[in-house]
Amino acid sequence: MIREMTKADFEIFWPTFRDIVVAQESYAFDPQINIETAYQLWCKQTRASFVFTQNDQILGSYYIKSNGMGPSDHICNCGYMVSELARGKGIASKLCEHSQATAKALGYSAMQFNSVVSTNQIAIKLWQKLGFTIIGTIPEAYRHAQLGLVDSYIMHKALIR
């Protein structure tokens, strides 16, 4: 089940959020981020945030927000996180499909991912399977904890044609 995230949900989800950020493999968030700053970033500075629950456990989450302002506010941006224990079970795919439907309902005509780390091949293949294309490469844009400087991709999908 996917539903809007509450502050209590975020507190439960915090260990997953923290672990993903501390790993420094996919998100360009400060690894020293605290729970309140993370909550503001994920839930308050966004248009909405959602959780994927199963058997009363929060296994994943996403946020949706405008990618730009004014004349560029018709394109949205999303971020997704899935608990390590739940990876490989189709949750990211369900979250992305839900986010696209949400984006359309909110009036967005396209979705753009601003920085998909090039070494995150599982995510890249999933996003491509769901219709996203790589429209640009940012050289050495990400300091990967294990691999050093790696490229990031900008990915895009039109939602309304």
Automatic annotation (TrEMBL):
GO terms for molecular function: acyltransferase activity, transferring groups other than amino-acyl groups. Signal peptide: none annotated. It holds the Pfam family Acetyltransf_1. The keyword Transferase applies. Keywords: Transferase. InterPro entries: Acyl_CoA_acyltransferase, GNAT_dom, Mito_N-acetyltransferase. Residues 1-160 form the N-acetyltransferase domain. It comes from the Bacteria. This is GNAT family N-acetyltransferase. It comes from Alginatibacterium sediminis.
